[in-house]
């Protein structure tokens, strides 16, 4: 019951806030932030992004001391904890991509406004690395200009799949000394992680789920439902992970925990790429795909959650929110984040005064 009560509370919060939301300034996005692939950033741009992420982990968290946000000390952990809190409501649902789009936009804003970052949130196009003979040679794992590599070998970890050599705390890169206080906790039924960023990089899952031919195939999915199944996977069977879980399982460690995966800053690089994959699909034929949605209101795969089923479908008017992390401005309807350039389009089912709230675009990845 707690599960449903929590859901109703979130719905109530979002529904009351959405009509009070001020219009998107000007209603038109005139100069979108351009999100770029990690390896196309200059060394200076990479370091300014990493420094901003590190900065977030030095600022005090606004959710610190809040009864629903155990373990939060820093601003970085605010985002992690909100994701943990909402996990049973925002995964394996039709608004999964919409909710994560909203989260990334808020994170990008925090980097820029609170940590003096003047770029856009970058993305990691893992399809450029999926077929490498050694996946860990991707520039994303560079210990100096990237996010660091694997965790130390930990024989006590349940290594997911063959060929895994880590499982412990990362030992190089800019985040190797990070301590994280937000744990999954007993209510999630999942093991508490180590309080650091742990990884157990997989050589198999990138080849299984993140290949360029799979990215190409995504755009040929005609309906949102087929697209969603392709990206988000059909089940927790490793053969059926899809790109979303496949990306998480390629890194493992914290990234394999559905509640606390934003412990690892790579979470944002992976999810921004998923957001780009969605945008590419949406704009392929924007006349009908832009406001296509579907899927369930509650998780369609329940292996990782213990709540009762939530009936109904996800729609453009499904409320999504970042709770206390986002406030009124980020308590919106899913349809409001379908257009990443926040254009004042008529969103089916939404009141005409309700507009989009986003203003960014994607630069293409480099060609191989
Ligand atoms: Cu998530």
Automatic annotation (TrEMBL):
This is Di-copper centre-containing protein. PROSITE patterns: TYROSINASE_2. GO terms for molecular function: metal ion binding; oxidoreductase activity. Residues 264-275 form the Tyrosinase copper-binding domain. It comes from the Eukaryota. Keywords: Copper, Metal-binding, Signal. SUPFAM superfamilies: Di-copper centre-containing domain. Residues 1-20 form the signal peptide. InterPro entries: Di-copper_centre_dom_sf, Tyrosinase/Hemocyanin, Tyrosinase_Cu-bd. It comes from Ascobolus immersus RN42.
């Amino acid at each position: 019951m707690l599960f449903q009560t929590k859901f109703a509370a979130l719905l109530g919060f979002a529904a009351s806030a959405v009509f009070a939301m001020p219009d998107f300034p000007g209603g038109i996005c005139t100069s979108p932030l351009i999100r770029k692939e990690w390896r196309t950033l200059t060394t200076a741009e990479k370091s300014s992004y990493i420094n901003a992420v590190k900065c977030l982990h030095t600022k005090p968290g606004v959710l610190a001391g809040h009864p629903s946000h155990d373990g939060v000390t820093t601003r970085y952990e605010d985002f992690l904890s909100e994701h943990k809190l909402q996990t049973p409501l925002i995964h394996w649902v039709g608004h999964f991509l919409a909710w994560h789009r909203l989260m990334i936009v808020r994170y990008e804003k925090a980097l820029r406004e609170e940590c003096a970052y003047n770029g856009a949130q970058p993305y990691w196009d893992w399809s450029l690395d999926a077929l490498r003979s050694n996946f860990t040679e991707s520039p994303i794992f560079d210990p100096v200009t990237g996010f660091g590599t694997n965790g130390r070998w930990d024989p006590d970890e349940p290594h997911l799949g063959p060929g895994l050599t880590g499982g412990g705390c990362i030992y190089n890169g800019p985040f190797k000394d990070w301590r994280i206080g937000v744990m999954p906790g007993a209510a999630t039924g999942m093991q508490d992680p180590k309080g650091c960023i742990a990884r157990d990089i997989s050589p198999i899952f990138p080849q299984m789920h993140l290949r360029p031919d799979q990215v190409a195939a995504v755009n040929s999915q005609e309906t949102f439902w087929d697209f969603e199944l392709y990206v988000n996977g059909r089940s927790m069977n490793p053969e059926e992970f899809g790109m979303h879980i496949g990306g998480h399982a390629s890194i493992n460690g914290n990234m394999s925990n559905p509640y606390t995966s934003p412990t690892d800053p790579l979470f944002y690089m992976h999810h921004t790429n998923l957001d780009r994959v969605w945008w590419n699909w949406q704009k392929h034929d924007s006349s009908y795909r832009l406001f296509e949605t579907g899927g369930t209101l509650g998780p369609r795969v329940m292996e990782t959650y213990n709540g009762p089923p939530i009936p109904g479908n996800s729609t453009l008017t499904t409320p999504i929110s970042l709770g206390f992390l986002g406030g009124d401005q980020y308590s919106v309807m899913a349809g409001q984040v379908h257009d990443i350039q926040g254009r004042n389009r008529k969103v089916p089912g939404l009141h005409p005064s309700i507009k989009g709230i986003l203003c960014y675009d994607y630069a293409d990845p480099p060609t191989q």
